[in-house]
Write a structure and sequence with these properties.
The chain is mainly beta. The chain has a domain at about 1-20 and about 35-90. Helices cover about 10% and strands about 25% of the residues. The protein contains one helix and four strands; from the N terminus they run E-E-E-E-H. The longest helix is centred in the C-terminal third of the chain and has 13 residues, at about 95-110. The model has no long low-confidence stretch (mean pLDDT about 85).
Length: about 130
Amino acid sequence: MCIAHAAKVSVMALEAWMKTASPGEKMDMTEPPSEAFDRQEVIVLMGESHVGQKQKFLPIIRHGNGKFFNLGETTVPGMDKMEGRFAQILPPKVADDQMRLLAKTMLKVKGVNIAKPGTTVRLTPPRR
C-alpha cells in the first residue's frame, strides 16, 4: 500500500493487549500479553516517516458491562524504536513509477479497493 501510493508517512491504529514490568522488575518474555493476568487493553498509534518513528499507547477504559467508555492518558514513556510485523512498513526509499504500478496491480489482484467518501459497502443483499 505504501509503495503503491508513494507514501512519505504512515499512521496505523491497532487495538492490542499490553503488559509492562514495574521499575526494577524483569519482564517475563515467555508469557504472551494476551494471557497476562495484569494485561492492559490499549489503542496503539504508530507514526512513521523516513526521519523517524513515534508511538503512543492509549489505555482503553470500559464500563463495568464491558462497553467502551473512553481512552485514558498514556502511561508508557516515549520510545525511539519499535520492531515487529507492524513496524517499519514504509520502504527505505521512494519507489519509482514502475514499482508503484506493480504494487497497485498486486493490490488490485488481491481485491483491495480505494474507499470513496460517502459510499458504503453492503455485505448482504437488501431485504425486500
